[in-house]
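Problem: given the chain below (185 residues), write out its structure.
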Amino acid sequence: MYRLCLSFLIFMVSTMSAFGGKLEITIKGEGANGIVVIDLFEEIAPLHVERMLALASNGNYDGIVFHRVIEGFMAQTGDVQFGKLGDDIENAGRGGSAMPDLAAEFSNIPFDRGVVGMARAQNPNSANSQFFIMFNKGYFLNGQYTVVGKVLEGMDVVDTIKLGLGPNGAVLGAPDFMEIVRPQE
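Solution.
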């Protein structure tokens, strides 16, 4: 039993370090075109980071639109159920992955410019696949949403993501999208 537990622990540690704790996102569209690198905070939100890395590794985030973009606030994406470019994205923002929702992993890290947080419904334990990137500080989110990382490179690309002009920041017409999302060493 000890060997089995030790083997599992070594596998988990090697898997996490193999990803390097970063995501590289190629963004395309009418507004943004470029690469964004996000440093993921495994120590702060291990379950959420593990989920994001799994979805990225499997290609689930590829082709997912930025469905909600509010000027001066944030850009939201990651709805792997209803947010696929080319599909009917009318319900984008209402779905998630087939995996169970995650319990909140709140921290003392403030929601500053470039911080990445997990989107959720009213229930704090309902984050699944969707995430958002802050354009500016949003301290009213502190202690209410899970911080998962911060933009290391490409904030200039994030700043050009097509704004949502519809209700509650919904993007109308052709939204910008994550063409390719992969873990980075």
